[in-house]
Amino acid sequence: MRSLVEKVTPLLRWMEKYTKTDMLYLAKGGFWLMLGQGILVVSGLVLSVAFANLLPKDVYGTYQFIMSMAAVIAAFTLSGMSTAITRSVAAGSEGALRYGFRVQLRWSSAMVVAGGVLAVYYLLNGNNTLALSFLIVGAFSPFLTAFGLTKSYFVGKRLFRESALIGLWRRFIPVFAVLVAILLTDDVVTIVLVYFASNVLSAGLLYTLVIRRYKLPRNRDRDMLAYSKHLSFLSTFSDIASQADKVLIFHFLGAAPVAIYALAQLPIAQVRLMFKLLLSLTMPKFVAAKFEDLQRTLPRKVNIILAATAVAAGMYALAAPYAFMLLFPAYPESVLLSQVLALSLLTIPRSMYGQVFSAHQMKRELYVLHISQNVLRLGLLVTLVPLYGLWGAVYALLATNLYLIALTHYLFLKARSR
């Protein structure tokens, strides 16, 4: 490994002349992040194949609806705490994780209430499956959200190797547990219970291990709390809008179309997760850099990534029919949807501008960016899904992404550091 590093380092340094980026930092951190994310992607793919081939479409669609509503419920807490912790740790606050964990739990009562309200609603409407499922969601979500903050500490400290290795087993426990549940039953309530219980158990063990290993203090960080409230307010719109398509499809079209749409989105979502690795690497760098310098140098890097993303999207569109035939033969309806959704990947590089706004606490730009795009997306979904079904959701997503590209670029170029 040392010999490989010595051989690759000159090449990375040479590439820096053209990319104007610390390529050695990206390679070191990116390797470990890619390792961890690669395992997550593979395990997620295994589960998706199991869901799609072992469960009826309506069961899989109902499960996807419950997971989407769980994400909406999670929006009613300090959903911006993860980014706030990363920023505070990068700025030197060692107690940010433990303080953020306690605050997150205190603010999670709304999740319990929301889960209970949904459970009562579906119970009164005679749907015991959804009623029990949302009781489980409301009971486990606060702990899953709070324990899930652990990764933010690793990112803020740039401990990418430790993040990949220490948390490796955390990824396998839920995957194994859910896979066993799918093999044994097609009962949605049981699968949902196994998913949440196994994730809370593994995330809780990881949080405890990190706290003890790094002897993290309990320092209060009021600035972090205030900033997390701003981010959470914005994230509420994003979290609801990002799940509204599946919720509306379930309401207007039923459970099976949700499964079709979810599988069409699956490869695109995995690419987005991979790009989040780059954002994890850049967040500490953006915090330390001057905004004026980023304003001058970042557009060139974004354009380079955009060109690479366009090539990747085209390659995926060509490969999609064969991939679905191999992995999801029962879902040929998802292929064309997924090929068109690949166009949404072209908005991913622009998200680096939003990362800069978060790193420098540029609240006005964040508010304009998040609120306007999510209001537009919700409005389009509510209008187009009843009219055009699954394609209405696709049209709404692409139109919102086109708007997002233009707005993000404009805000970044016109913004002033404060």
| Uncertain regions spanning at least 5 consecutive residues | 4-9, 11-27
Radius of gyration: 21 Å
Count all strands and give the number.
0
Strand content: under 5%
Order of helices and strands: HHHHHHHHHHHHHHHHHH
Number of domains: 1
Look at the structure and give the mean pLDDT.
Answer: 84
Query: How would you describe the shape?
Result: globular
- What's the assembly state of these chains? single chain
Any key phrases for this structure?
single chain, 418 residues, mainly alpha, 18 helices
Description:
By secondary structure, this protein is mostly helical. It has one domain. It contains 18 helices and no strands. It has helices at 2-19, 23-54, 57-74, 81-90, 96-106, 109-124, 128-147, 150-157, 160-166, 168-184, 188-214, 222-252, 255-288, 291-327, 334-341, 351-359, 363-388, 390-414. It is globular. It starts with a helix and ends with a helix. The relative contact order is 0.12. Mean pLDDT is 84; it is low at 4-9 and 11-27.
Which SSEs are present, and which pair or pack?
Elements: H1 2-19, H2 23-54, H3 57-74, H4 81-90, H5 96-106, H6 109-124, H7 128-147, H8 150-157, H9 160-166, H10 168-184, H11 188-214, H12 222-252, H13 255-288, H14 291-327, H15 334-341, H16 351-359, H17 363-388, H18 390-414
